[in-house]
UniProtKB/TrEMBL annotation:
InterPro entries: AAA+_ATPase (IPR003593), ATPase_dyneun-rel_AAA (IPR011704), CbbQ/NirQ/NorQ/GpvN (IPR050764), P-loop_NTPase (IPR027417). It comes from Ottowia beijingensis. Pfam families: AAA_5 (PF07728). CDD domains: AAA. This is MoxR family ATPase. SUPFAM superfamilies: P-loop containing nucleoside triphosphate hydrolases (SSF52540). Gene3D superfamilies: P-loop containing nucleotide triphosphate hydrolases (3.40.50.300). Residues 35-196 form the AAA+ ATPase domain. GO terms for molecular function: ATP binding; ATP hydrolysis activity. It comes from the Bacteria.
Length: 320
């Protein structure tokens, strides 16, 4: 059965590639593939938006083409530009040997075209490519308007060549950290999914898959500690650690031959979890001790079944 046959098979295929998608995210990705619509992923940095595109490319056996957006990104850097040096050489070589109109037509041939990510994705041979338009919120509004033709019709217009349509429909993933609101016209052309931080069990599965050399107890502590920082102490930090930071932290702890977390090792590696000076300073010894103690208490707390067993034991003791 192909990996895109059902939501469950896609979920399993992504998991085999090391990406643990929950049901809602897997449904959004499945519909984007079936409906051949771009998928816009918004969420905090480090929650796995970019990794989904990478994993989909691996699962589908397609080339991953990445367009990294930034302030001031121009159309020629995203779509195409002409090889002016080669065109000039051709003009000089052909000068006087043909009419000027014919020479001008010759220099605007595909062989003089430098293809950028959007054009590469449109011209990728079957089965097509996965195009990642990463951090689209960093680009400006005119660039968003430029994207509309591609997002709505999988085609672009090149004045000298005409309209270029997709040879095979690209799987298109847009990501945004929501540093600014995107234009409604962009959103209407995409399916939408807000990607949140994972629950503790899913993050533990990710850490274990990405850092298999980490001891089970340490991986569990890492997932629990980061989850506690996000859920109970998020207001203390400018930005809570993402999944990427959890994985990198686990790798760092393994490199230090750490078997269990303690305040000293947590403070010593705080720069892996946080990238702001204020956030590192907010991770005090007192806070670390509190989080570790809370987690230890949770592990030692009796389960409903064990409480029931203890109650029965006490009743038997009293009866005896």
């Amino acid at each position: 059965m192909p990996p895109t046959a059902t939501i469950d098979t896609l979920t399993d295929a992504l998991q085999a590639a090391g990406y643990f998608a929950d049901r809602r995210l897997a449904t959004a990705a499945f519909l984007a593939l079936k409906l051949q619509r771009p998928l816009l992923l918004e969420g905090e940095p480090g929650v796995g938006k970019t990794e989904l595109a990478k994993s989909l490319a691996q699962v589908l056996g397609r080339e991953l083409i990445r367009l990294q957006c930034y302030d001031g990104l121009e159309q020629r850097e995203a779509l195409y530009e002409w090889n002016y040096a080669a065109q000039l050489l051709h003009l000089r070589a052909a000068e006087g040997s043909a009419p000027s109109e014919e020479i001008e037509r010759e220099v605007y041939q595909p062989r003089y075209l430098i293809r950028r990510p959007l054009l590469q994705a449109l011209q990728a041979p079957p089965p097509g490519a996965v195009l990642l338009i990463d951090e689209v919120d960093r680009a400006d509004e005119p660039f968003e308007a430029f994207l509309l033709e591609y997002l709505g019709e999988y085609q672009v217009s090149i004045p000298e060549l005409g309209t270029v349509r997709a040879a095979a429909t690209p799987v298109t993933i847009l990501t945004s950290n929501r540093t600014r609101e995107l234009n409604d016209a962009v959103k209407r052309r995409c399916l939408y999914h807000w990607l949140d931080y994972p629950e503790r069990e899913r993050e533990l599965a990710i850490v274990r898959a990405r850092v298999p050399e980490a001891p089970q107890a340490l991986a569990d502590q890492v997932a629990a500690f980061v989850h506690k920082l996000r859920s109970a102490h998020a207001s203390l930090f400018q930005r809570a650690p993402g999944i990427a930071e959890s994985v990198e932290w686990a790798r760092a702890l393994v490199a230090l031959d750490t078997l269990a977390l303690d305040p000293e090792v947590v403070q010593g590696t705080a720069g892996v979890l946080f990238k702001q000076r204020e956030d590192v300073a907010a991770l005090t010894t007192e806070l670390i001790t509190e989080v570790l103690a809370a987690e230890e208490g949770r592990e030692q707390a009796p389960t409903p079944m064990s409480r029931r067993f203890c109650s029965l034991s006490r009743l038997r003791e009293r009866a005896g």
